[in-house]
């Protein structure tokens, strides 16, 4: 690309130099035909000045202002540099602001005065123009000659600035689009990470509790062992299905269908809601966690799917933490309408594990992710140790989600 640009610049420079020499040749031939070429010394000086003016055009890109002022200064002594002067004026109009363009035109008009006085036009003299008239005519002619290339150059400059502005705007829009896409991908990753934590932590803690029962209850019969082993296998299968579905969404991206996300032709499984909390409690009871569910929601009033999904995740996280940090302790799950426009979820359990129960390690990130999830849903959350009625200390997780009356 750079080589192509250099070749194009060389071709343009050669074209400008050829036009400047051709203009000088035409003007010189016209002066010879009219018999006003002047003495030989003057002709030689004009030839040398014209050669210098044409060669100076090679520097018009690097020093457009200096070259233009040099050309208009030479125009005060010889008319043969007119072509080079117009090309230099065009270069200034392309590369410099209008104030410098006006300066070049002004100097060019002023330079026409001494030339008109030293080399008066015979036709104007025959028409009765004196020195002042010759000077005015020279200024007018110089202004008329310089106006077209200067105007053309300013149009070219405005077009280039417009193209550069459009290109910069397009690049900025592309960069902003990439940034927005990256932010969307980041939010998608965070959503998937929270989903994986909520789902897998629940399944794995269930498997851990059942496996712990097999380890501690050595007096279990073969039928009971088989039942517990079947529960572990079912939980592991469900965990793998959940993981496969989430990874399928991750591979497909937003709006796509994962390559491994379920059976071919099958859509994603329905998202859990408030109606699925009872099944979630039953799973925890089957794992040996005593859970009491108090459902005080008004009959016949459906919870919006987004609110129900968040409520399900709140209860799931509460039960998961209870199994991890207080296994064997009774857990109270409460659902109720708070006021007129909120769904109140409460998960409360006594702190500490019973004798013989082992505590599972936690990542300490579930409640943080849950807080963000509830906040994005427009609700609020509160959790921490609370004084129990029997004088002990309970851990209480509460959330209030928006649930406007319909």
Automatic annotation (TrEMBL):
Keywords: ATP-binding, Coiled coil, Kinase, Membrane, Nucleotide-binding, Phosphoprotein, Transferase, Transmembrane, Transmembrane helix, Two-component regulatory system. GO terms for molecular function: ATP binding; phosphorelay sensor kinase activity; protein dimerization activity. The keyword NADP does not apply. Residues 252-271 are annotated as: Disordered. InterPro entries: HATPase_C_sf, Sensor_HK_TwoCompSys, Sig_transdc_His_kin_sub3_dim/P. The keyword Transmembrane applies. Residues 156-183 form a coiled coil. GO terms for cellular component: membrane. Pfam families: HisKA_3 (PF07730). Residues 188-252 form the Signal transduction histidine kinase subgroup 3 dimerisation and phosphoacceptor domain. The chain crosses the membrane at residues 41-58, 65-92, 98-117, 129-152. It is an enzyme of class 2 (transferase). It catalyses: ATP + protein L-histidine = ADP + protein N-phospho-L-histidine. It comes from the Bacteria. Its EC number is 2.7.13.3. PANTHER family: NITRATE/NITRITE SENSOR PROTEIN NARX-RELATED, NITRATE_NITRITE SENSOR PROTEIN NARQ. This is histidine kinase. The lineage of its organism: Bacteria, Bacillati, Actinomycetota, Actinomycetes, Kitasatosporales.
């Amino acid at each position: 690309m750079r080589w192509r640009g250099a070749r194009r610049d060389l071709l343009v420079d050669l074209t400008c130099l050829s036009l400047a020499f051709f203009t000088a040749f035409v003007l010189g031939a016209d002066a010879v035909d009219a018999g006003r070429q002047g003495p030989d010394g003057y002709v030689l000086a004009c030839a040398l000045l014209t050669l210098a003016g044409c060669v100076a055009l090679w520097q018009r890109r690097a020093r457009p202002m200096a070259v233009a002022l040099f050309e208009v200064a030479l125009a005060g002594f010889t008319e043969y540099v007119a072509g080079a002067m117009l090309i230099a004026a065009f270069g200034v109009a392309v590369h410099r602001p209008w104030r410098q363009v006006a300066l070049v035109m002004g100097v060019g008009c002023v330079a026409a005065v001494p030339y008109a006085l030293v080399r008066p036009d015979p036709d104007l003299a025959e028409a009765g123009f004196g020195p002042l008239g010759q000077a005015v005519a020279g200024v007018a002619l110089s202004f008329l000659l310089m106006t077209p290339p200067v105007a053309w150059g300013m149009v070219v400059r405005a077009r280039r600035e417009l193209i550069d502005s459009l290109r910069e705007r397009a690049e900025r829009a592309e960069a902003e689009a990439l940034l927005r896409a990256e932010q969307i991908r980041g939010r998608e990753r965070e959503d998937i990470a929270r989903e994986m934590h909520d789902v897998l932590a629940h399944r794995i803690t269930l498997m851990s509790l059942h496996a712990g029962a097999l380890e501690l209850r050595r007096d279990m019969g073969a039928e009971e062992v088989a039942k517990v082993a079947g529960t572990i296998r079912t939980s592991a299968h469900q965990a793998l299905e959940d993981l496969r579905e989430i990874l399928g969404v991750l591979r497909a991206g937003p709006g796509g269908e994962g390559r491994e996300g379920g059976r071919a032709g099958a859509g994603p499984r329905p998202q859990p809601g408030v109606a699925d909390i009872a099944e979630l409690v039953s799973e925890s009871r089957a794992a040996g966690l005593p859970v009491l569910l108090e459902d005080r929601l008004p009959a016949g009033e459906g919870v919006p799917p987004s609110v129900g999904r968040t409520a399900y995740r709140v209860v799931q996280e509460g039960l998961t933490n209870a199994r991890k940090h207080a296994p064997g302790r009774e857990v109270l799950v409460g659902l109720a309408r708070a006021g007129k426009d909120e769904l109140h979820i409460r998960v409360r359990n006594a702190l500490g594990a019973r004798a013989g129960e082992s505590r599972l390690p936690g990542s300490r990130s579930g409640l943080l992710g849950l807080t963000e999830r509830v906040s994005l849903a427009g609700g609020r959350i509160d959790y921490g140790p609370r004084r129990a009625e029997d004088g002990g200390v309970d851990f209480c997780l509460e959330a209030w989600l928006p649930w406007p009356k319909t």
